[in-house]
Specification:
By secondary structure, the chain is mainly alpha-helical. The chain has 4 domains: 222 residues, no CATH class; 146 residues, no CATH class; 121 residues, no CATH class; 84 residues, SH3 type barrels (Roll). The protein has 25 helices and 7 strands. It has a 5-stranded antiparallel sheet. Strands 1-2 form a two-stranded antiparallel sheet. A hairpin with a 2-residue loop joins strand 3 and strand 4. Helix 18 runs antiparallel to helix 19. The longest helix has 49 residues. The termini are far apart.
Length: 729
Amino acid sequence: MANGKDNVVPLKAPARAAVKQTLAHKPVETLPRALQAVHLLLSRALQQGLGQFFDNADDALFERADGAGSNVDQSVYFEAMRSLRLARSQLCQAVFAELREDFIRLNNPQRPSAPSVDVYGGEDLFAEDVELVSEDTLERQVAIKTMVSKQLSGHRNNIDHLWRRCYFLLERRGSDDNQRLPSHPQSQCEFFVAQLEALEFPLPVQLLLLKLYERTVLAQLASAYTVINQKLAQQGVMADLQRQISRERRASFNRRQPQLRADTQVQGQALGELHELLGEEQGLLPSAAEAPAADRVQLSRSQLGQLLARVQQAQVEAGPITEAPERAASAAQLKQLLNSSGQVSQLDRNIINLVHLLFEYIWEDPNLAAPMRALLSRMQIPLIKVALVDASFLQAGSHPARQLLNEMARCALGWEEKPGSRDALLNQLQLIVERIQSEFDRDVSLFTELHQQLSKFLKREQRRAELVTQRTVDQARGQALAQQAKAATKAALNKLAPQLPTAAITFLEQGWSRVLQITLLKEGEGSPQWQQKLHLAHKLAQLLGHPERADNKENLAALLARMQRDLDEVGLDSFHCQQWFDGLHAHVRLQPLRREVALDLDAACPAGKSEPVPQEPPKTEAEADLKAAPRLSASDPAMRQARRLNQGAWLLYCRGEQRDRCRLAAILPALGQYIFVDRQGKKLLELNIDALAQHLKAGELQVLNDGQLFDRALQTVIGDLRRRKQAQR
């Protein structure tokens, strides 16, 4: 059948009169007939998956209740089981209705959606910024992200192919984004979580049900993707899709060829000019002119491998290298063994010398902590063996051994030694090196296996660090916004009448300022609520100016009653509130001397208050030291470097003898703050742009190079060899 849209036969879509018009199976009339059939097949997959989900959920909740450690926990699971049974019909209808709406939205791609607001990316601040993300929300977000990643990694091709075919049937209307595909794992997970939240299930129950949803409903949908793709292809809908994708990839590759040639220039030189440069180099092995007599037996690659294996085994038995003298001793041992065993060909000598020079660079690399450099140096002998048996090692950046070495160096960039402790990352890298030393002979697939193992470990580590980092950044945002609200409140109150009684000043400083700050954070400075609360403060100052007038006393009593209700709403301590009002009432009767108003919102809050006024976080030692330093101009190299820093960059923070590695976790443009965290995600430093530039200029913050370690080493070695050769001419 021709690959067209008008003559596509629906995938056994039943006639409209023969179908019971239920919400789950009602055709989406405005779509092409083939897409109506796709909707029907996905609905059937959902129906089957939901049936399995509710059966398994009932059993799982009962098991949790049966194994609960307390009556309270047991009642939680029994109540969840009862609620889920009652909500079964409603939940199924909601899922089917959402799928139907997703298909209808395909036919209305231009329908405007609610504008998304980048809360922290612009200059405006919103009240939501102040609230820290709850741990429950973070757990749900991580669970969704994990599930979606798992589904995409296992079924990415089927999802992409199905979307391409749907997009083709839609005559390519709207944006070409496969997340628009109805039943996409991302939208499915997010919608289901929203339904669970609406049912007010506790977090443990939500996570349990979400996992069951993945194993049942998402698994059924994944199977449906394959079946639907096959049926559409059989009916001529992009039957040659795989060839089309291959053509697209070739075209993309051809477009990238100039850049690829530039990127692989160094690797290409490694096979040509590099051997010429290494010909006379005094490396690990002597040059051809200083090589042993020609009558000695030339070592084959197999014999070289056996000799290298002996050195490799000796290193395993000796334990890890920790000092430079030990490293030199190991190099001397290898050199002596090779020289005493026979003649090494010029090509093999060049390869061995090159890898040795690369590891000399790694040993001296200041971007890595000394223990990590020592650990990576243990891979020198195995990688010499790789270079001898696999010519692509020096040429291809995608070689498994190079990828593993680069990944190990990348994750070690933020690692620093903690006296008396060994963390999980160091242990993981140690295990990888030990396996390479003990197992590698000629099969480079070991490096692929270990790279996958390391990637899984790093994903778990990254998940934990992201949770801590998110809390750290949210807390910093909240503190900064609270300080802005505090400053705005102080400025507004200081514009009151020039003289106020002592009781009024106490009330405004310790009580009403809290109401103003919370209103400002929630509603904004231009909101009617903020203006209203500020008006009440102005009214109070006016009435206290003439307390002897009878009408003022009546108005003051009504005003104080109104303000007391507002104070109660923000949760201030009732005992202290009563003290403030008693003082104001006493002033009306006794009229004590007034004093100039100079509101000090930094004064300590009275003991016993349930919610103290947010205090300004103390200046970090780094900012305090540079407070008096002159501001750098915009053209200063340090200022330009500060502005070029990207989120995720690693830096070395130097304070005397102390060295800490930190990552730029967040840039808050509206607040002018740069937040740095350690590898675990805990805040280490918070600076504004001026302080950051000053630290960079003083060398107290040094940007670490997070480029590919092997490629950096190769480029540096080639550059050094060229300069030496030019100097000899």
